[in-house]
Batch of 2 targets.
Target 1
Amino acid sequence: MGAMLSSLFVIVFFAGLVVAAEVGSGEGGGSGGESGENPVKKELPEPDRDGTFALEKALDERRSRRSFSGEPLSLSQAGQLLWAAQGISDERRGYRTAPSAGATFPLDVYLVAGDVDELAPAIYKYEPSEHAVTPVVPGDQRSDLRTAALGQDSVGAAPAAIVITGTYARTTQRYGERGEMYTHMEAGHAGQNIYLQATALGLGTVAIGAFVDDSVSSLLRLSGDEKPLYIYPVGHQ
Ligand SMILES: Cc1cc2nc3c(=O)[nH]c(=O)nc-3n(C[C@H](O)[C@H](O)[C@H](O)COP(=O)(O)O)c2cc1C
């Protein structure tokens, strides 16, 4: 009962927050993507590992942004954000940009692309080892993602959204029940990386935690114990 009430509180709180938030523009544009083409696996441009935007400046300027200009995301911007979330930073061991409990790597990252240059609108799964995206659901799915996120405008208005999922078993088989908590902690690390990378690229994003789990799961065709943990709409200001 307590858990139900607190879930209700979260939903009501964020629904209120959304009404108060600035209303985004340019939903469902599709001008920058290869609209009409079938989505295909795509290698992403090599990520920038040597940017000049100061970390302290990114920390200082990081803010949740809920409205977007309507300008498409470039493929290299999308790739850079995915790399920041879960990219490989140690090729030999396969270690990633975010820490992982016992290097069990329970997280996966998806790109819900609506208006991304050189990418047909679709939901793609990020493949860290190849720094590539593989299509999982064709078509522009932003409107359904927005509905699943309780109608939050920021989700529909951004040219793309990154969804972080967690597969608990990868971590619980080593750490027992505690692995669930570790998975949630890791989503926070990956999410903060997205915030800071977006800031360094001059883009905006917001952590979205208020959504209907089952709706996001069915939209992304998640199976087993893979659960959606976060949505990050990203775009130009
Ligand atoms: C776990 C979590 C869930 C959140 N869920 C939402 C959400 O569903 N919708 C939203 O607009 N903002 C959401 N936010 C963003 C917060 O509202 C935001 O971080 C807060 O207002 C502070 O603003 P700042 O990020 O600019 O510092 C969430 C943040 C966190 C950490």
Note: The longest strand covers residues 226-236.
Target 2
Amino acid sequence: MSTMQQPNANLQPLLRARGVKRRFRLGERTLEVLHGVDLELRPGERVALMGSSGAGKSTLIQILGLLDAPDEGEVYYGEVSAWKQPVDARARLRNRSIGFVFQFFHLIPELDAVENVLLPAMISGDPDVKSRRKELRERAVQMLRDFGLGERLDHRPAQLSGGEKQRVAIARALLLDPQLVIADEPTGNLDSTTGAKVLDLLLDEQKKRNLTLLLVTHDERVAARCSRIVHMRDGRVVT
Ligand SMILES: Nc1ncnc2c1ncn2[C@@H]1O[C@H](COP(=O)(O)OP(=O)(O)O)[C@@H](O)[C@H]1O
Ligand SMILES: [Mg+2]
């Protein structure tokens, strides 16, 4: 591909995965679900990750997002091999640099919208982040207002629609100004009209903040709005 089509090709990758393998033990058997994945994400890139169910997309993004360890291979953030870092350094990297949005929202039912946005930051064990509680709370409120949830700040998830829940989850992902947002089928549990609005919000924020966005989707129309499509098949990246 020519550099003309790759506006960020001159920038150093934000993330590089090299030879990532993941196996699961199933009783006596070992099932390898990632067979050696190489992938690079550049600053500001909007990448769609596609592939049929079971291809390994969720397993891969958990490893790229530093939530699950590979059995072999490396994930570099800049020059740092993330899985070779001590656990607290890796937690800090994850907490400060990566935001997650999930298909099923993963909000805490007992907490209201503002508290849900704040929670990951506050339980991170990162003293620098914890000491910013007041400022972060104000930031959470402002973001929820910007996302059209000004009247929903003290609502719990059960009192929110699916689209509203995903807006809360997006605010949570963006609270600490990450460089990378990983979204696993973020509109997969929403009706098409609501999903389209949530996607618009996510893509607007991606552009405004020059985020790197890795977006798992089955939807060709969603993928068409990304700068690049990565296809997975049977535990491998095929493009
Ligand atoms: N914790 C696990 N234990 C055993 N097998 C798993 C586990 N997680 C995922 N798998 C298997 O790995 C394969 C890839 O799953 P997944 O990454 O969820 O695919 P996708 O997100 O592309 O649908 C599937 O065959 C799935 O059953
Ligand atoms: Mg999945």
Note: Residues 1-5 have pLDDT under 50 and may be disordered.
